[in-house]
Design a protein that fits this description.
With 317 residues, this protein is of the alpha+beta class. The protein has six helices and 17 strands. This is Villin-1-like.
């Protein structure tokens, strides 16, 4: 997409004086407003741009995030990065930019969604362009994780997806069954219930029932367990203990550093991944068209650092 067209679209959709959240999804390489009733729901096959505006007396502060689903395309990732950069430019360079990867979001990002984040299968490419409500022909198992800021992702409809340290929601459309792992704590269970009720209210119009099964006392929930076995099979005795803690996952993320090259040398903005950690200075490309600008983006610790420069024949000018 030509750079001028990108700038025009950003200027058209961006409201920089309204406090709170604004979310856009990348659809056919364009930034399309996401319905506010679906905030907190992210399709794994898509990329999003999220702006949080905070009013400080007579001025504003901005946090810009681009969120990448685990199955999003490279083109959509590139478009999200480009729109984020152009949006920051439109905001006068005042925004703090963040890169958010599915499952590894920053606390700042997760904190926007008080009732939790839900990862949904599919995306624009698979026809998921509309956020539907009051749909009951649903069969999915959600793995709920996190004590402070909750996220839930769809996993295989099988007991092999369970572990004893987390909370799981079996969503059957008109009934949502919350299974509490024996080693899950009170806060995780409360957060799981908040999320279950949010699904009931936002996706089912308040007309679904919510039931709870305690993993260490399944016999006390006979009817709910009967339904769980009907959809998941007989209970397995070898359910795993707790999986890696959030701290371990975060540490793994912090060891990940990538370098991307963004260029408009052909008249269109193009994003390419150059390398992963370790990185060196000689990875920077000095052979682009000197009449064009180039952006080198270093993604470090889950955050985005952008270096804008103009290339000269002899190097960086």
């Amino acid at each position: 997409m030509p750079q001028m067209q990108v700038k025009t679209q950003v200027a058209k959709v961006l409201n920089k004086t309204t406090p709170g959240l604004q979310i856009w999804r990348i659809e056919d390489m364009e930034m399309v407003p996401f319905p506010s009733k679906a905030y907190g729901q992210f399709y794994e096959g898509d990329s999003y741009v999220v702006l949080y505006t905070n009013k400080m007396r007579s001025s504003f502060t901005y946090d810009l995030h681009y969120w990448l689903g685990k199955a999003t395309s490279h083109d959509e990732q590139g478009a999200a990065a480009i729109y984020t950069t152009m949006m920051d430019e439109h905001l006068g360079g005042m925004a703090v930019q963040h890169r958010e990867a599915q499952g590894y979001e920053s606390d700042t990002f997760r904190g926007y969604f008080k009732k939790g984040i839900i990862y949904k299968s599919g995306g624009v490419a698979s026809g998921m362009k509309q956020v539907e409500t009051n749909i009951y022909n649903i069969r999915r198992l959600l793995h709920v994780k996190g004590r402070k800021n909750v996220v839930a992702g769809e996993v295989d409809m099988s007991w092999s997806s369970f572990n004893k340290g987390d909370v799981f929601l079996l969503d059957l459309g008109n009934l949502i069954i919350q299974w509490n792992g024996p080693k899950s704590n009170r806060m995780e269970r409360l957060k799981g219930m908040t999320l279950a009720k949010d699904i009931r209210d936002r996706e089912r119009g308040g007309r679904a029932q919510v039931s709870v099964v305690e993993g260490d006392d399944e016999k006390s929930s006979e009817e709910a367990m009967k339904l769980m076995k009907q959809h998941l099979g007989e209970t397995r005795r070898d359910i795993r203990d707790s999986i890696a803690s959030d701290d371990v996952v975060d540490q793994k993320l912090r060891s990940s550093v990538k370098l991307f090259h963004i260029s408009d040398a052909q008249g269109n903005l193009v994003v390419q991944e150059v390398a992963v950690k370790p990185l060196s200075q000689d990875l920077l490309n000095h052979e682009s068209d000197p009449s064009r600008s180039t952006l080198e983006q270093l993604l470090e610790h889950g955050r985005l650092r952008t270096i804008v420069h103009r290339l000269d024949v002899g190097g960086v000018g």
